[in-house]
Amino acid sequence: MVKQVHNDDVHTPANVGQSPPATSTLTPDRVDVWWVSLDQPLPAVQRCAQILSADERARAARFHFERDQQRFTLARGNLRRILARYLGVAAQTIQFHYNTYGKPGLEAAVYPVTPQFNLSHAGNLAIYAVTTERAVGIDIEQMRPITDFSQLVERFFSVQEYTQFRLLPEQRRLAAFFAGWTRKEAYIKARGSGLTLPLNQFDVTLNPDEPARLLRIQGDPHTAARWILRDLAVEPGYVAALAVEGQGWNLACRQAPE
């Protein structure tokens, strides 16, 4: 059974329980977040490879290391399998289109129900957000030591964010960097317009102990209120965030079936 949680809750996907049935129905008041391990045996990789398009297989082949090829194959294959549940079609028949900034989508003229979706993967985890009638973005990062993360905050984050970052205890700053980065990336990906809105032109909360929020967009005092940011509790060593346009939705976290 899939557990529905309100959008002001943080939910751990690994604790959801059973996988959902073979078909899933989207409603405007629900956002589904799926997660999948990218460390799977070769037969699982081969099954995913069989449902990829020719251009997806070509993209996988461009990775230098076999592990990265396999993880890309699993991430894209599971995207197809997840969307197939909502569309009621075979996974290999799904046709994607890409906007000017490379964000994948589905042609509304082809499918009677057109999910809005986004995906992200890091390390051995991939996560997917699926909804309808609202924009959505998701990002995951694997926590790791970064020697110059303070310089990255100063260079890419806003002045207000950098000021707040400097006020945090030094031992909390790396976690704040990853929290801020995933929150900002999730919002940028939801907009689907690349870096036409630079990362330093909007503010999010950085403190990992503080709820994720979009605080301000420079030159646009009204848009921030339309968006909700949420942290997602994933596996230890990973940080993830979700950005959703609009109010009045519930979050359901699901594990993609093997």
Q: Strands, helices and their partners?
A:
Blueprint: E1 4-6, E2 30-37, H1 42-51, H2 54-61, H3 66-87, E3 96-98, E4 104-106, E5 116-122, E6 125-131, E7 136-142, H4 149-156, H5 159-167, H6 173-191, E8 202-204, E9 214-217, E10 227-232, E11 238-245, E12 250-255
Parallel strand pairs: 2-12
Antiparallel strand pairs: 1-12, 2-6, 3-4, 5-6, 7-11, 8-9, 10-11
Helix pairs in contact: 1-3, 2-3
Rg result = 18 Å
Shape: globular
Task: List low-pLDDT spans.
Answer: 1-21
Total helical elements:
6
What is the fold named in CATH at topology level?
Ribosomal Protein L22, Chain A
Q: Tell me the domain tally.
A: 1
At the fourth CATH level, what is the homologous superfamily?
A: 4'-phosphopantetheinyl transferase domain
Largest β sheet strand count, sense and barrel closure: 5 strands, mixed
How many strand elements?
12
Would you list the SSEs in sequence order as H and E? EEHHHEEEEEHHHEEEEE
Strand content: 25-35%
Q: What are the salient characteristics of this protein?
A:
globular, alpha+beta, 6 helices, 258 residues, five-stranded mixed β-sheet, 25% strand, Ribosomal Protein L22, Chain A, three-stranded antiparallel β-sheet
